[in-house]
Write a structure and sequence with these properties.
By secondary structure, this protein is an alpha/beta fold. Helices cover about 40% and strands about 30% of the residues. The strands form 2 sheets. Strands 6-7-8-3-9-10 form a 6-stranded mixed sheet, sandwiched between helices. The longest helix has 18 residues. It is globular and about 45 Å long. The N and C termini lie far apart (about 35 Å). Bound molecules: adenosine-5'-diphosphate (ADP) and magnesium ion. The site of magnesium ion has 4 residues, from helix 1. Magnesium ion binds next to helix 1.
């Protein structure tokens, strides 16, 4: 299988502060990745670095065979990276439909298909961004990324603060994107169980370095390893998954 994405000894951060420290991992075409780790270890910085929003000190990022380390963020969007930021960043004074259309790029994804994936958004098409619930905002943030017609979707804690029923609906939609559309994703999560159920591969970060890399199913089954890598919170996570 061909390599889709690789970080090669990448160090990056903000100003003089190094957050990611010689990070290396790779992902094949069509594979989805869970990025796990406690608060503050550099998960968001990894996605921000992939999108070109941080300062790279050394190393290389390859995307579909080409180095993209020096490309501007908009060039990376054009190359197929679709970003769903942690704060969702829905435009509050635009309607749902305007939010979607303002970023549209040519490709297989369009309004009709985003509405088919998230019927709620169609119902709310005329509502303004600031009139949406948290779950609807997250659907809109994902729908907006899809309208840019990405090959890889970057999701930063997409389930944060959402009700369990919405979390399930979003997880189903994201899995369907992978299985039916072949659209891979990188999911950043503090809570591992759900993220592992949505992905093929997993990496765990600790203070900006890689402490584990493997397949998601294997890690999900290895409770002792999960506990050692991620510590508290696993029991609650397992209860959520079992519910
Ligand atoms: N814009 C920024 N400027 C300076 N330091 C930052 C910035 N964003 C994050 N950091 C620092 O980088 C480290 C990793 O943060 P982050 O990537 O947000 O972690 P995570 O997403 O895993 O919680 C933290 O020490 C944080 O304080
Ligand atoms: Mg974060």
């Amino acid at each position: 299988m061909a390599e889709m994405l690789a970080f090669d000894a990448l160090s990056a951060g903000y100003g003089n502060a190094v957050v990611l420290d010689r990070l290396s991992f790779s992902l094949n075409e069509g594979q989805s990745l869970a990025v796990l780790g406690r608060n503050g270890v550099g998960k968001t910085t990894l996605l921000e670095t992939l999108m070109g929003h941080t300062r790279v000190m050394s190393g290389e990022i390859r995307w579909r065979g080409q180095p993209i380390t020096r490309l501007a963020p908009h060039q990376r969007v054009r190359a197929g990276l679709g970003w769903v930021p942690q704060e969702r960043e829905v435009f509050p004074s635009l309607t749902v439909e305007e939010n979607l259309l303002v970023v549209a790029r040519r490709g297989p994804w369009n309004l009709r298909r985003v509405y088919a994936l998230f019927p709620r958004l169609q119902e709310r098409r005329g509502n303004y961004g600031n009139q949406l619930s948290g779950g609807e905002q997250q659907m809109l943030a994902i729908g907006r990324a899809l309208m840019t017609n990405p090959r890889l979707l970057l999701l930063d804690e997409p389930m944060e603060g959402l009700a369990p029923i919405i979390v399930e609906e979003l997880a189903r939609a994201i899995r369907a994107l992978g299985e039916r559309e072949g659209l891979a994703c990188i999911v950043v999560e503090q809570h591992p169980v759900l993220a592992l159920s949505m992905t093929n591969r997993a990496i765990v970060l600790e203070r900006g370095t890689l402490v584990h890399s493997g397949d998601s199913a294997g890690l999900a089954e290895d409770t002792a390893l999960l506990h050692r890598l991620l510590g508290v919170g696993i029991e609650e996570d397992l209860e959520v998954a079992a519910a």
